[in-house]
Amino acid sequence: MSSSAAPSPSHDDHEKHDREEGAADPCAGPARGLWSVDEHLADILATVSPLEPIELQLLDAQGCVLVEDVTVPAALPPFDNSSMDGYAVRIADVTGATEEFPAVLTVVGDVAAGAGGLPEVGPGQAARIMTGAPLPPGAEAVVPVEWTDGGAGGGAATGMTAASAAPEGSGGEVRVHRSAEAGAHVRRAGSDVRAGELALAAGTVLGPPQIGLLAAIGRGTVKVRPRPRVVVLSTGSELVQPGEPLGEGQIHDSNSFALAAAARDAGALAYRVGAVADDAESLRATIEDQLIRADLLVTTGGVSVGAYDVVKEALSADGQVDFRKLAMQPGKPQGFGAVGAEQIPLLALPGNPVSSYVSFELFVRPAIRALMGVEDLHRPRVRALLAADEAVSSPAGRRQFLRGTYDREAGTVTPVGGAGSHLIAALAHADCLLVVPEETETVEPGAELEVVLLG
After folding, report:
1. Euclidean distance between CA atoms 108 and 139, whole angstroms
2. What pLDDT digit, counting tens, does each position of 165-194 carry?
3. Residues 134, 79: contact at Cβ < 8 Å?
4. 344-349 and 296-300 as β-strands: parallel, antiparallel, unpaired?
5. Are 353 and 427 in contact (CB under 8 A)?
6. Contacts of 235 (CB under 8 A, 6+ apart)
7. Which of 88, 95, 263, 424 has the smallest number of CB atoms closer than 10 Å to its CB?
8. Cα distance between residue 250 and residue 230, in whole Å
9. C-beta atoms surrounding 175 within 10 Å
């Protein structure tokens, strides 16, 4: 059977073989043709280039990276406007006003958001004004409606009657119970950003607030690097779609779902392909069909040394993909190359669930981020103390990645599950990876380790 998305005896045998190799040869490395984790990643990043910029509508640009600075064409807000529902007044007319001795002003009209033809506020006058409405000429401040009687002639008002229900509210008199300073409850023109200022710098990843700012300054489109299109497919005749019943010797395909979700989390547009059977021609045909919508291809399974490891069989013959062994655990067998006329990068990952996910985090995620054109390619890393009841062992000559939970406040990390590459339940409860260096065979409780944060 091929390496697949869930445990099988052959997968465990491969992992056992990996551990035995590492234990037998602490000097494993260049002499045995093993690539280091860093060498494999460097090879990938040297090949992957940022995607060409395109102009996109704002909502289509969410998650993309700006390729040019965006400046503010006009001040924001473009005019003085009210931050409250209330009355636009002159300062001199409300100075010293109290509930016992209110300032009585003549209401000269309504000012709603978006209104034109504004009434002028003269001495002894006020204009009823709504939040966001432009400050009318002559007015110097806004008093909230709660500081007035709302024009009803009673005590403090709690709100305004809708203009459609009481059009007479735009006239008559209003009693103001408190004084106000100049500019009170007024948003000044340019108080957010001024014309000519930098709104967003090149390299910014566009999230909801950035999209909102672009819309506010009048940009309908923006020039960005598009989100990479990542096609994920798993291989194995034993794989069954989740939700369908299992037959003898079958397992549900989990890898393609996990990796498609991980690609989305990294910022890509992910396309999951149904599992491909252990047939080289079928795999080559499937990959050929997917090239039209792929900036990056990711396969899982079929890269080890079994008789049915179809990815290796299908892609190694013409030299498009180089299959190599890495000095790491889990995830020793890896493949990398480019396929099709457009030379689309392809990363071939092992099939055990933990192996494939760890490989994704270490190699595929940085490749996706490189295609996006962002500077920060990698997950954050911290140093933490091992919180465990006993020492953790690691194969000599291999960089081991263990699953764990990180306690930020305590500065500690606790292993979750064992070292087996099929333990997907433990992976689901982990929020980090513990990194044990190649030269370290035992890590005692309390020792400091590098930790890759996944959340």
Report:
1. 12
2. 666 666 789 999 999 999 999 999 999 989
3. yes
4. parallel
5. yes
6. 2, 3, 4, 275, 276, 277, 278, 283, 299, 300, 301, 302, 310, 311, 351
7. 95
8. 27
9. 22
Tokens read off for 150 = 């709302």
C-alpha neighbours within 13 Å on the C-beta side of residue 283: 31
- The C-alpha atoms of residue 454 and residue 379 are separated, in whole angstroms, by 7
Cα separation, 147 vs 98, in Å, equals: 9
The two tokens of residue 63 are: 């998650």
Torsion of CA 436, 440, 443, 449, to 10 degrees: -40
Give the tokens for residue 53: 């910029």
Instruction: Answer positive or negative: Cα dihedral of 152, 157, 162, 163.
Output: positive
Percent pLDDT > 70 in the chain is: 88
Helices (H), 156-278: 208-216, 255-266
Task: Report pLDDT digits (tens) over 1-22.
Answer: 333 333 433 333 344 444 333 3
pTM, rounded to two decimals: 0.79
β-pairing verdict for 381-386 and 412-415: parallel
Q: How many CA atoms lie within 13 A of 234 on its CB side?
A: 30
Task: Answer yes or no: are the C-beta atoms of 368 and 228 closer than 8 Å.
Answer: yes
Identify whether the C-beta of residue 260 lies closer than 8 Å to the C-beta of residue 272: yes
DSSP E strands: which ranges in 7-124?
54-57, 65-66, 70-71, 81-82, 86-89, 103-111
